[in-house]
Amino acid sequence: MAWIQVRARAPKTLHETIEDHLLELGAVSITFQDGADQPVLEPGVGETPLWDNLVILGLFTADTPSESLRSHLQHVFAPSGQFDIEILEDRVWEREWEKHYQPIQFADNLWICPSWCTPPDPAAVNLLLDPGLAFGTGTHPSTAMCLKQLAQQELKDQMTVDYGCGSGILGIAMLKMGASRFVGIDNDPQALVATADNARRNSIASSEFIVVGPEQEDQHLGPACADTLVANILAEPLMMLAPKLVEFLKPDGLLVLAGLIESQVPAVSEHYLPAVELHIADQTDEWVCLIGRKRKH
To answer: 166 — alpha (psi -120 to 50), left (phi > 0) or beta?
Structure first.
């Protein structure tokens, strides 16, 4: 069966009005896309942020009268009329969506693979991670840089922490690269669910993997408990959390920080002195990844 698709451009302030109109006209699905290459970073708990400029796609069955649909839409979008109507041939839509996600290599021995793909290098460390509510699938520069830095470390038998674990991608990677235990902390319940689901998908034993909210962290973390600690969040929480993160690190423990841009490095680094002297280990555009080790004395 063919489908009729309406493609419209609009500011996010109008998304509810346009969505209501499309549903009233019989749309069977509505999709929002970024209309201006605008990143949406670190949404608050329970938030579903939208881009300022949207592409709104409405899907209608083939028997929808297209001229009547066009007439109604011209009224909805008057006076600009910023919409198009096209005919889509029937496809297996799940497979079309999957085409956009392919295995990504982060180091010689580290790949992230959607579950429907065969790992390109079966002998490498392969993380199975499907897009979803995904809080990080490795495509953002900050996550990618963290993965590259972790792939260079000796993690065997280490106790590792990811503060702001999102999808759990960094913790799963550390365990697959030899860490013996991982604790993930996140204040978003959806992140905790996503992390636990991804751990199961990667056959991570529950004894090795703990993920909790900040209110429970004291049950699993204490002074000088972590060999390696990662925090891929934003500059402001990185500064606010500095005393706590430093306290969790063992002497000579490795600290990896990301989610900040180059201009924020001096302010963030100052909050970790004198315990940890941070330096830029990697940079992609303005995004940077900082690493450093906790002083032994």
So the answer is: left
User: Is the pLDDT reported for residue 217 higher than 90?
Assistant: yes
Query: Whole-angstrom Cα distance, residue 291 to residue 282?
Result: 9
Q: Which of 169, 34, 175 is nearest to 112 (CA)?
A: 169
What whole-number distance in Å separates Cα of residue 295 and Cα of residue 297? 6
**Residue ranges in 62-125 assigned as alpha helix (H):** 66-76, 93-98
Q: What is the mean pLDDT of residues 61-85?
A: 81
Signed CA dihedral, 283, 238, 236, 239: sign only: negative
pTM, 2 dp: 0.70
Which class for 38: exposed (0-12), middle (13-18), buried (19 or more C-beta within 10 A)? Answer: exposed
Half-sphere exposure for 144 (CA within 13 Å, toward CB): 12
* Distance in angstroms (rounded) separating the CA atoms of residues 218 and 232: 20
Q: Give pLDDT tens digits for 221-268.
A: 999 999 999 999 999 999 999 999 999 999 999 999 999 999 999 999
Interval 263-286: pLDDT, tens = 999 999 999 999 999 999 999 989
